[in-house]
Amino acid sequence: MDYVGHVIRPPSEAYSMIIQVTVGCSHNQCTFCGTYKDQKFRVKDIAQVKRDIDEMSGYRYGFTKAFLADGDVLILPTEDLLDLIHYIRKKNPSIERIGVYGNTKAILKKTPEELLALRKAGLGIVYQGIESGNREVLRRIKKGAFPHKQLETAEKVKAAGMLLSQTVLLGIGGVALSEEHAIDTGRHLGEMSPQYAGALTVMLLPNTELYRDYTAGKFQLPDKFGLLNELKLMLVNMKVKSPLYFTSNHASNYLPIKAEIPRDRHMVIKLVDEVLRKRDESLLKPEYMRAL
Question: Which sign does the torsion angle of CA 159, 160, 161, 164 carry?
Answer without folding.
Answer: negative
